[in-house]
TrEMBL record, chain A:
UniProt domain SKP1 component dimerisation: residue ranges: 125-167
The protein's name in its UniProt record: SKP1-like protein
Organism encoding this protein: Sesamum alatum
Pathway info: Protein modification; protein ubiquitination
Location of region: Disordered: 1-27
Highest taxon, organism lineage: Eukaryota
Function as written in the Swiss-Prot or TrEMBL entry: Involved in ubiquitination and subsequent proteasomal degradation of target proteins. Together with CUL1, RBX1 and a F-box protein, it forms a SCF E3 ubiquitin ligase complex. The functional specificity of this complex depends on the type of F-box protein. In the SCF complex, it serves as an adapter that links the F-box protein to CUL1.
Domain SKP1 component POZ: start-end pairs: 25-82
UniProtKB/TrEMBL annotation, chain B:
NCBIfam families membership: F_box_assoc_1
Domain of life according to the entry: Eukaryota
F-box domain mapped to chain residues: 21-61
Record InterPro entries: F-box-assoc_dom_typ1, F-box-assoc_interact_dom, F-box-like_dom_sf, F-box_dom, Gal_Oxase/kelch_b-propeller, SCF_F-box_component
Protein name as catalogued: F-box protein
PANTHER family, alphabetized: BNACNNG10540D PROTEIN, F-BOX PROTEIN CPR30-LIKE
Amino acid sequence: MARKNRNPVGKNVDPEAQKKKTRTLTLKSSDGQEFSISESAAVLSIAIENMVEDDCAGGVIPLPLVDGGTLARVITYLNKHAEDGASDEEKRKFDEEFVSGMEMGVLFDVVLAANYLDIRGLLREVRRRIADRMKNKSVEWVRKTFHIESDFTPEEEEQMKKEFAWAWEGVDSDVDD
Amino acid sequence: MEGEITSTATTTTSAAEAVAYTDDVLVEILLFLPAKSIIRFKAVSKHWHSLISTSSFSHLHTLRHRKPQPSFILRAAPSLFFYFNPTRKKFLQFHLNFAHPRILQSCHGLLLLECGSSLSVNRDYYVYNPTTRDSRNLLLEKESLLGLRLAFDPSKSPHYKVICVSSTSYSIHFCEIQVYDSETRTWKRLDKVFTSSDFRKFNDGVYWNSGIYWIASGDQILSFDIENSVLESSPATMITSRGGRSLNMVHLMESSGWMHCVLHKDTLSSLLLVYEYEVKDNVNDWYLKYGVSFDLIAASFGERTYGKISVMGIITGERKEELSLVFHIPGKILVYRFHDGSSEELLDLRLVKFYRERQLQFGYHDAYQFIESLAPV
């Protein structure tokens, strides 16, 4: 550090960044749970960063669209990605494990939270994971999982199945993984 | 919304619905899916169907899924087509809903079709996406057509061009070229006039590196640069000199960004030589990459070729460098992997209705790559 200080350009440790690391924010979930998080981790969410910048934070940031369970997960993600010295490889591995154990319902909660909080890396990871689970599944499985009622007639559905027979080939059984 | 979320169970239900009906969230998830899943999920609901069918979705999807593993469309009889997936070893009938369709070319997910009976003067020409089954009539009225080629590379542009070569009205020895642009939906005639004999084998041409390449009569490879409308020729003696009299097949093929010339010699146990077009010391030329004996491969499966071989294509595996040759001999579809010399039987055709002993079930001009793509036509 001392050596860096002698740098003629004056590339010092950014005092602002240092402050962010020590300053903590409180995030409040829809069900009233409060979580503390370092500002440097919290601002990986573009939405939170904007709130902090606009100074409308006032210590506690209410997140009325995210429940406590989901917020706890999101915070775990943010902390890892704000961690000093975590290599890209380490983060990649963390991301992989972070989403691999989640059920579809949890993935849906997290994708909505990441979308609302604008956390790009997490969004990409969760979207990819949801798509991965859907990839070889049947139309019926998708309807059940997404709570969608079909508005096609059985004849219309049969027609699509016939015309695109190759796309219906090799579909997994509907057992959840 | 706040009030609704009270327990984990309802969160899951409302979250699932929120994802299913929040279009921007849903679209971003669906864009990760391969074209095959997308086509199937069009049947989920009318809402999903319309979301997936927009041209902006197709375009984004095409850009994100650049090199899907190819399957094939095979023609067993004039109006009998099959879908064949070499990875999954699946063989299914494929319905082409056109009157007397003939596939002229497959190019990065789109097919060029000629439709109309051979007796009819009026033929229609279509650009067709076999994945989405969307088609566009090129509205081409030509009696003296010499050749028609499709040029499409979704990594460069979502639009395609069609190059039409036809005799001039005053002499069959000269020809003119019209280029169709899918973006403007118009045909445009080039000012230049060309020599008809140069375009004699234009319909065997492949689209590669912004041009159409074909083997002309003699020892020449001709190429037509589409952007600049320039016809160029380069010697191909390296290839043709190898063949001599025993040469019974020379084909150009494009696969995953490479252009190959496949040469089949009947002598020497049905030898196939594969040349790759590449730049060495600033000179573009053909270099021998692989050699393989069909008879030896067939023998390893207890089969004989009877001198009848149909090369279906050279495809890449999981890794771009790992090329495989997919080919057909009477009764079988086999694959030979150049990188490790292994071969495998992909399909036994002896049980299909159109099987005839010692005969090919489809020829070279009956096998076209089916690349799963949502590319708009």
